[in-house]
Specification:
It comes from Robbsia betulipollinis. This is COX15/CtaA family protein. It is found in: Membrane. The chain is mainly α. The protein folds into two domains: about 200 residues, no CATH class; about 160 residues, no CATH class. Helices cover about 70% and strands about 0% of the residues. Helix 1 crosses helix 4, helix 7 packs antiparallel against helix 9 and helix 11 packs antiparallel against helix 12.
Length: about 375
């Protein structure tokens, strides 16, 4: 019964963005729905980091509800008992609400993707959009939901939490690409198209580097290794501090423990932090170079400039996390900045790919998406 109540809550949350799309005067409502869903998914990724950083991942220690109910209101008694037994433990009323709000928004994103699929199926002649995109996104969010469940049932096991993060970003990237494919792109001179296409490999390489760096950042966060190095640019006063890479990057283990079940050593946490910090130098340098080179093309100038800005922001927030001892707001900004950088690279890669000869023109896309819901 409570599962049905959860579904209704997710539907109610989704009605807000759906209503916004319907009441707007824009004729291309399907395109607006895609961008609104992308924006909410970005918010979901950031709120997921807030949930993790506030230690609220086990605020409701079961899934998909909270102590077998649809709301912390109903589970009030059980939450208070757990909080009284462990006042500084993982279960408190505040943490329960943070965790359940994250789940409600995730369900709302699922409803919005189902709406996209239904619209594509019912309006396929007007839209001329393959149903495979929304169907694939729906499958992805179902897998994401499964890893969300395992995050709780396996008690925040680092590899599961990191995969959960990466799947959320994959969903964001897929929605961004889908939305871009239904949006008229800036025109460019045909003579410049060939020059733009030469940057495709470099743009894909930038995307892959960022994905690896995000995975390393997720590993740092899920292992609570942000403060394993307490100074910068050295790490605990050394350029090469003692590190245990075997323990630090042993994937299948419980939070705070080694693969043998022992308490994880500080040297392992230092190895995790040092690897993320060192690889960041490579990624920042490469993406700064890429952004500078791509912003000379009019069709790529917008996302390239935003990429440069966010690269600088990521550098500043990353350093601030160390110097200021991991303040919550800056930590959430650092996570959100990585998600925005991912979207920038998705936009750059899409615009480079769409410059190939024979790709549909922007005018055609504008016509196909200008339908009501």
């Amino acid at each position: 019964m409570f599962v049905l109540q959860l579904a209704l809550i997710g539907l109610c949350v989704a009605l807000f963005p759906l209503s916004y799309v319907l009441v707007k005067g824009d004729a291309a409502k399907f395109r607006k729905l895609l961008w609104v869903t992308t924006f909410i998914t970005l918010d979901l990724v950031m709120f997921g980091s807030f949930t993790r950083l506030t230690d609220s991942g086990l605020g409701c220690p079961d899934w998909p509800g909270c102590y077998g109910t649809a709301s912390p209101f109903v589970a009030h008694h059980a939450i208070r008992l757990a909080e009284a037994a462990m006042p500084t433990g993982p279960v408190t009323m505040t943490k329960a609400w943070i965790e359940m709000t994250h789940r409600y928004v995730a369900m709302a994103v699922g409803v919005l993707i189902i709406a996209q699929l239904l619209i594509v199926v019912l309006r396929r002649r007007q839209l001329r959009v393959s149903w495979l995109w929304p169907a694939g996104l729906l499958a992805l969010i179902c897998v994401q939901g499964a890893f969300g469940a395992w995050t709780v049932t396996l008690k925040l096991q680092p590899v599961i939490v990191t995969i959960h993060l990466l799947l959320g970003l994959a969903l964001l990237a897929g929605l961004g690409w889908f939305a871009a494919s239904q949006t008229p792109q800036p025109a460019h001179a045909p003579a410049r198209g060939a020059e733009v296409r030469r940057w495709r490999t470099a743009a894909v390489a930038g995307l892959l580097l960022l994905i690896v760096q995000i995975a390393l950042g997720g590993w740092v966060s899920t292992n609570y290794a942000v403060l394993a190095c307490t100074d910068f640019p050295t790490c605990n006063g050394q350029w090469l501090p003692p590190m245990d890479f075997a323990q630090g990057f042993h994937l299948w283990r419980k939070l705070g423990l080694t693969g043998n079940g022992e308490v994880i050593a500080q040297d392992a946490l230092v190895a995790i932090h040092w690897t993320h910090r060192t690889f960041a130098v490579i990624v920042i340098a490469y993406l700064a170079w890429l952004g500078i080179r791509l912003k000379r093309f009019a069709v790529l100038r917008g996302p390239a400039r935003l990429l440069l800005l966010m690269t600088a922001v990521q550098l500043l927030t990353g350093l601030s996390n160390i110097v200021l001892k991991w303040p919550l707001l800056i930590a959430v900004m650092h996570n959100g900045g990585a998600a925005v950088m991912l979207l920038c690279l998705i936009m750059l890669n899409y615009r480079i790919a769409s410059s190939r000869p024979g790709r549909p023109g922007s005018a055609g896309k504008a016509t196909r998406t200008a339908v009501t819901l």
